[in-house]
Amino acid sequence: MGTEAQASTTSTPSVGGPLAQRPGKIVAVHLAYLSRADQRGRRPAAPSYFLKPTSSLGAPGGVVERPAGTELLAFEGEIALVIGEPARHVSVEEAWEHVAAVTAANDLGVYDLRWADKGSNVRSKGRDGYTPVGPALIDARAVDPAALRVRTWVNGGLVQEDTTGDDALLFPFAQIVADLSQHLTLETGDLVLTGTPAGSSVVVPGDVVEVEVDAPTAPGAPSSGRLVTTVVQGEVPFSDVGAGPKIDDTQRAEAWGSRAAAGLPPEPEPEGEPEGEPEPFALTDELADKLRRAPVAGLSAQLRKRGLDNVIIEGLRPNVPGATIVGRARTLRFVPNREDLFAAHGGGYNAQKRMFDTVGAGEVIVIEARGEKGSATLGDVLALRAQVRGAAGVVTDGGVRDFEAVAATGLPVFSGGPHPAVLGRRHVPWDTDVAVACGGATVLPGDVVVGDADGVVVVPPHLAEEVADATIAQEEQDAWVAQQVAAGHPVDGLFPPNAAWRARYESQKAHEPQEFQAPQESQAPGESR
């Protein structure tokens, strides 16, 4: 490294390598790089975090154990930010001023233990030595945070390389610092691990992992130097005092980066789906618009004509008069409260929170609460989260707390009504994206859900286009019939039309098609039938 690079790089070996003091905390970002997000198949709308203990710090040139009885130890080359001046409620524009230095880090983790962590990463990423950093610090004032580079080598081969430009990151580093500062004080010496790009994979005993952070376009191209870590085999087995290792093919695929990299066959095609099957159903904007114009009463009638009489979600009303819902179902199941089960499944990042955090644009969260209205199934914070993510609404056969605040979010919610009690009074959030029973109707993930002032109906996807078209056609005919009744004709023979009246209708429709639109003037502002 040249003299100029040395001038903007410091190297003061201490605990954890170059750090002048042991940090008070280590905060790590789950996903920050576009390449990693696309590899994972999800792009979060906002950064999320977990904490690592300071006892996980490791020095350059050290070793890290793959615990006895485990298979999936994975490396993650990352850029670590070292906080200088404490940061609390700082803006994005001010945030980088609170970063003293950057360096290389390796956010190691054992996928065999993720099942027990439930998102905390305490077991999988908190082990001794699982956060090596260094070997040198790069002065944050000497570099552009959008012009850094991180690279990782395993046994001399380059396996990760990415930059921090706008086209590479989901969340710029200044945004991460500013966001964290609105929740907690980032203190002098704290470390922020900023996520890893694509290419993270599994290492085995004997492998050598090297991570380097540099600023190749800055004067002198300052670098952290290579952070070298050697993997060794742990010898101490897990006892039965707590959760031990457990893996499946899903964890293998995530740890290795793909099923192919893990040596697994491709996901099998669904049984009974022959070659040449049409593209999976998609709720297009055009079809969604048709369903908004098709009243639930009409859809129900059309489904009944096709032999489906048990598709109404009973007993629900919209939180705001005139609210409507059209979208595909994401499902959330609650089971009756049992104290030991709530202790295990009710707290932390439970099934309810995961659902509201991952609902997609245009999707409807359908909650099975067994018709139990003696506690709420959501409140204003979760409603706001769903609204921000673009959800089409929520359907629950349970209660809703913060009822007026939920309504104020603008998220359409159909429910059993308001109730002030929290979830745990009656329910345990159990699982997601499974078949549920809501208001007496079975709802599968992906079913089409339509709601208006008359209630909520579940439409099997393969029938959605057909029943939407038939309902709209029926609405046009009913509107014409209503005109005849208003003109003084009796309903006998007209409702429904007999052969003579039908012939008259078809003739007039052929000559005056503009007259055959369902009336809109009775709808609430912004409402679409």
**Which runs of at least 5 residues are low in confidence (pLDDT < 50)?**
1-16, 516-529
CATH architecture tag of the largest domain: Alpha-Beta Complex
Radius of gyration: 29 Å
Q: What count of structural domains? A: 3
The number of strands is 28
Helix content: 10-25%
Specify the biggest β-sheet. 9 strands, mixed
> How much beta, percentage-wise?
15-25%
The number of distinct helices, counting runs of at least 4 residues, comes to 15
Overall shape: it is: elongated
CATH superfamily caption of the largest domain: Fumarylacetoacetase-like, C-terminal domain
CATH class of the largest domain: Alpha Beta
Distance between the termini: 69 Å
Average per-residue pLDDT, rounded, comes to 87
Structural class: alpha+beta
Short account of what is shown:
The protein is α+β, with helices and mostly antiparallel strands and 529 residues long. The protein is built from 15 helices and 28 strands.
Explain this structure.
By secondary structure, this protein is an alpha+beta fold. It has three domains: 3-256, Alpha-Beta Complex (Fumarylacetoacetate hydrolase, domain 2), CATH 3.90.850; 312-459, Ribonuclease E inhibitor RraA/RraA-like (Glucose Oxidase, domain 1, 3-Layer(bba) Sandwich); 469-515, no CATH class. 24% of the residues lie in helices and 23% in strands. It contains 15 helices and 28 strands. Strands 18, 19, 20, 21, 22, 23, 24, 27 and 28 form a nine-stranded mixed sheet that branches. β25 and β26 form a beta hairpin. α8 runs parallel beside α14 and α9 (296-305) packs across α14. Keywords: Metal-binding. InterPro entries: Fumarylacetoacetase-like_C, Fumarylacetoacetase_C_sf, RraA/RraA-like, RraA/RraA-like_sf. Pfam families: FAA_hydrolase, RraA-like.
